[in-house]
Amino acid sequence: MKSIHATTLLALLALLLFVPPYLPTTLVNAGIQMLIAALFATAFNVLAGQGGMLSFGHSAYFAIGTFATIHAMNAVEAIAGFPTPLLPLAGFVGGGLLGVAAGWFSTQRSGVYFAMVTLALAELLHALAPHLSGIFGGEGGVSAMRMPAWGLTFGSSIEVYYLTLFWAALGIALLYYFTRTPLGRLCEGLRENTHRLGFLGYDVHRLRLMVFTISAAFSGLAGALLAMSNEAANYVLFDMNLSAQVVLNAYIGGIGAFFGPALGAAVMTFFGYAVSDLTRTWLLYQGVIFVLVMMFMPAGLFSIGRWWRTHRDRHSPGRLGAVFAGWTCGCLLAAAGLVFLVEMLAVVLAQDYQSLLVAGQPWPAVALFGLNLRPGQFLVWLAPLLLIALGVVWVLWVGRRWAALREEYAS
């Protein structure tokens, strides 16, 4: 299994290294955001998934890392002498220092109380940031410029991409190494049974604080990469939305596996990039995906690979591929019906369309997906409902066939 993981990681790294120069600038920029989100989700998972401490305010450390790097960039521009590629270390240090201060209070409690304390601290910073204009820049935020270093100008997206890739890969690798250290192994004890750790003589509060600080420092590193990419920062980064986003990404990918949150963050970041320009309701789809994953795939998207590895010795790749393809086709059918229904409702319920309605007159036609549709016709609403029903039935049928195959093998 380890060799397969190593082969997969090497193939992914080769893809990230050699493909971007042939992609358009927009996709390169999307790749930068995916790498930043992957590092942030991995840092969060060390705390939540490995250490069992769910934080609702992790945007604070990400934001502090961003602002620390922005100010470091301005200092380098004014003083010079410090190489630009090393500036993300400022975000790492900033996130770590805030992690020590906030973590000392937060880790005094566990469970829901810990989550509420982290949320309160993040909201406190969010409330204070607009008033500390000397640090956070007020409404306009703070901006800076990447300075040339080591023969690179960092003026193009591809140079920023490789800088982001280096730090993101290094950060994720160091976090993976941390999970293999004695302290990293103790994280499982923090998650499973803190009382037993205390009986064994460990200082549970100190362990929690150390794990919290490491997670905060690498979250700050992810924020530093955002500063290097955008060359600007605003106190909006302290908002609850960013904290909620990293929680969603981590759980969609699967907090039970080290690389699960990185997968979820990359997939959902690209989803937002690809869909946000097509529809205003893309956040609704993101929420639906989260609910469905939690209901039917609680271990996250990463569990698909685990499912394949678990059953590949008992069933042929063709049979497993057919089952997976059947589930995928059913989900796509149901998704097509849901998207059609949601987009139609978004148009019909909009004020612009409502103003066109005249009592006693047929509803005006709607242009949707290249079709000219009449919302007043029953068939327009029946078609997406049939697609959803067909997709659900298909998925259930494939699930029963899979259960029958497993029983046949077991017998």
Description of the structure:
The protein is mainly alpha-helical and 411 residues long. It has helices at residues 2-18, 25-50, 59-79, 88-106, 111-128, 133-136, 157-179, 182-192, 194-199, 204-230, 240-253, 260-275, 282-296, 303-311, 317-348, 351-354, 378-410, and strands at 142-143, 232-233, 366-368, 371-373. α2 packs parallel to α7 (157-179) and α7 (157-179) packs antiparallel against α10. It is globular and about 70 Å long.
Structural class: mainly alpha
Distance between the ends? 27 Å
Sequence stretches where pLDDT stays below 50 over 5 or more residues: none
The succession of helices and strands, N to C, reads HHHHHHEHHHHEHHHHHHEEH
Share of residues in helices: over 70%
Give a brief outline of the structure:
By secondary structure, the chain is mainly α. It has helices spanning 2-18, 25-50, 59-79, 88-106, 111-128, 133-136, 157-179, 182-192, 194-199, 204-230, 240-253, 260-275, 282-296, 303-311, 317-348, 351-354, 378-410; strands at 142-143, 232-233, 366-368, 371-373.
Fill in the keyword field for this structure.
mainly alpha; 4 strands; single chain; two-stranded antiparallel ribbon; 411 residues; 17 helices
Give the helices and strands, then pairings.
Layout: H1 2-18, H2 25-50, H3 59-79, H4 88-106, H5 111-128, H6 133-136, E1 142-143, H7 157-179, H8 182-192, H9 194-199, H10 204-230, E2 232-233, H11 240-253, H12 260-275, H13 282-296, H14 303-311, H15 317-348, H16 351-354, E3 366-368, E4 371-373, H17 378-410
Helix pairs in contact: 2-7, 2-8, 2-10, 2-11, 2-12, 3-4, 3-10, 4-5, 4-10, 7-10, 8-10, 11-12, 15-17
